[in-house]
């Protein structure tokens, strides 16, 4: 009787035998451990190509920029979950990561996708000389006008705290420029920063999440996965928040402050 052919599940990532572990075609223990940094490995896993030192520097700068930004909703959610269920560290981290959406962290992906879409729609206008600011300004002006006409926000514009300047933005631009990786997404984003006030009637800062999305897109990373890199960075920040919660807890105070300040409002009167 012929035996059925066993299933095969192809992968270019990790496999193992009883004695070895392979990752990306390398021996994990002898070729990667102690020789490859985590940021480099993360890029390598996604792109299937080993990144250059310049790419790693820009990528890890993004991770640092997005790791923690104070008592944001994601950090508060993680701390409150931890105080409620201290036996579930993974639940606390997950609750913080689940808050990565269109207002916090998700802007990284939204900006990258938006910039990629504008570049595709204006491909014939993209200058061969990437330093041609006038050409970029023309594309940016048209894109912002189109967004305004459609009553859509331009991702990456504005910040709830940094009303004038997000300090991460010029620094990441500088790092990308130093490494020769300031590509079309970053240049278009920079141009949006220069021209948007002409359309919107007010100046808004280019925020850190947006510039991170542009930088990641210029690294050639898939724009539909950019939120994942923001979450990768924030996981480290949340672990730091939870470690601090064990040393210097605030979550119970936050809970009690909100709970003791709760005031019943009659539904009928609340509608007026």
CATH class of the largest domain: Mainly Alpha
Strand order of the largest sheet: 1-2-3
| Head-to-tail CA distance between termini | 79 Å
Output the CATH topology of the largest domain.
Cytochrome p450-Terp, domain 2
Structural features, described:
The protein is mostly helical and 272 residues long. The protein has two domains: 37-100 and 226-250, no CATH class; 107-223, Cytochrome P450-Terp, domain 2 (Cytochrome p450-Terp, domain 2, Orthogonal Bundle), CATH 1.10.230.10. Helix content is 58%, strand content 3%. It has 13 helices and three strands, in the order βββααααααααααααα. A three-stranded antiparallel β-sheet has the order 1-2-3. A hairpin with a 2-residue loop joins strand 2 and strand 3 (26-27).
Give a summary of the structure in a few sentences:
The chain has helices at residues 28-32, 38-47, 53-67, 73-84, 89-98, 107-121, 133-149, 168-178, 184-200, 208-218, 226-247, 251-260, 267-270; strands at residues 14-16, 21-23, 26-27. With 272 residues, it is mainly alpha-helical. The protein has 2 domains: 37-100 and 226-250, no CATH class; 107-223, Orthogonal Bundle (Cytochrome p450-Terp, domain 2), CATH 1.10.230.10.
Features:
single chain; 272 residues; mainly alpha; Cytochrome p450-Terp, domain 2; 2 domains; 3-stranded antiparallel β-sheet; 58% helix
Q: How would the blueprint of this fold be written?
A:
Layout: E1 14-16, E2 21-23, E3 26-27, H1 28-32, H2 38-47, H3 53-67, H4 73-84, H5 89-98, H6 107-121, H7 133-149, H8 168-178, H9 184-200, H10 208-218, H11 226-247, H12 251-260, H13 267-270
Antiparallel strand pairs: 1-2, 2-3
Helix pairs in contact: 3-8, 3-10, 3-11, 4-5, 4-11, 4-12, 5-11, 6-9, 6-10, 6-11, 7-9, 8-10, 9-10
